[in-house]
Specification:
Blueprint (H helix, E strand, L loop, with lengths): L7 H18 L18 E6 L2 H13 L2 E5 L3 H10 L4 E3 L2 H13 L4 E5 L3 H11 L5 E2 L45 H5 L2 E7 L3 H15 L5 H13 L8 E5 L1 H13 L6 E5 L8 E5 L4
């Protein structure tokens, strides 16, 4: 059975998530050269309004390993975000959110929480309570950022859920140690793979082949491939995508061709909806 075309809008959201994710990792200081060490575990990120850009930021934060807080006074939008996997919990107050976030920040574990209140209300309460995110999402995000903005009215950063008056803790500094620079990103394009039969069986096998094709130093790409399918939810049920160089794409495709995958594979090079993308079909292994 032929696959339904992947919506250009869905692909655009995936691409936006990946762009934010790559930007986040440029501020993540790796402790050692492995995929778990460079994430944002133990960091609190604030997404603001859970509109489409805010959802993309929350998903990117989860892929990067952070704890994320968002707000929305639109119950339908918040519930849809939960169904889509953009947030893990929907709560009615900042107190409820902080109970979840404090525990996950302490354990350096990922979680995304949305409070069912307007962002302005939440931000006022956060300032009154001394809740200072490590990073907050700048509205009007467009492409890679040179810096991240603090909450309006705040001049300090730090992983402190309850900052005390006169707290002199040094702000968190983020190092551009493991993320790609602009030149590196320009050399990469999208490689997307889909299968028409039993995606829950075959996509993880294809992902493993792609991971084996990436060098150990491609930590950001490896982390994306391992975590993005989970947090992209429905969008990744039958389409996994990775930004790669032409050489890496060739290596991955060679492994796909040599593997015993008993289902047709649809492979796309380039963004969906772009006139320059190429769609290749791979027959099932005999």
């Amino acid at each position: 059975m032929p696959l339904e075309p992947l919506s250009p809008a869905a692909f655009a959201f995936i691409a936006q998530v990946e762009e934010i994710y790559a930007t986040l990792l440029r501020w993540a200081a790796p402790r050692e050269n492995n995929v778990d060490a460079i994430g944002l575990g133990g960091r609190l990120l604030y997404a603001g309004e859970l509109d489409a850009p805010g959802r993309a930021f929350a998903v990117a934060a989860s892929i990067a390993g952070a704890a994320a807080l968002a707000a929305s006074a639109d119950p339908a939008a918040a519930k849809q975000a939960m169904r889509d996997g953009a947030v893990d919990f929907l709560v009615n107050s900042l107190d409820e959110a902080l109970r979840i976030l404090k525990n996950q920040v302490r354990k350096r574990e990922t979680v995304a929480v949305c409070v069912s209140l307007p962002p302005a209300s939440i931000e006022t309460e956060m300032r009154a309570r001394g809740v200072v995110p490590d990073l907050s999402f700048p509205r009007g995000f467009a492409g890679a950022l040179a810096h991240w903005e603090d909450l309006p009215g705040e001049s300090s950063r730090g992983a402190r859920l309850h900052a005390q008056p006169g707290d002199q803790n040094a702000p968190v500094e983020y190092l551009a140690a493991s993320g790609e620079d602009a030149a590196e990103r320009k050399e990469k394009t999208w490689l997307t793979w889909r299968v028409s039969d039993a995606p829950a069986l075959w996509l993880p096998r294809l992902d493993a082949l792609a991971l084996d094709s990436l060098p150990p130093g491609e930590i950001a790409a490896r982390r994306w491939l391992e975590r993005a399918p989970r947090y992209l939810g429905r969008l990744a049920q039958n389409a996994h995508a990775l930004r790669v160089t032409e050489q890496q794409a060739g290596q991955i495709l060679a492994r796909f061709s040599a593997a015993a995958i008993a289902a047709p594979i649809e492979i796309t090079l380039g963004p969906w909806g772009d006139s320059g993308h190429q769609t290749l079909s791979s027959p099932p292994a005999p």
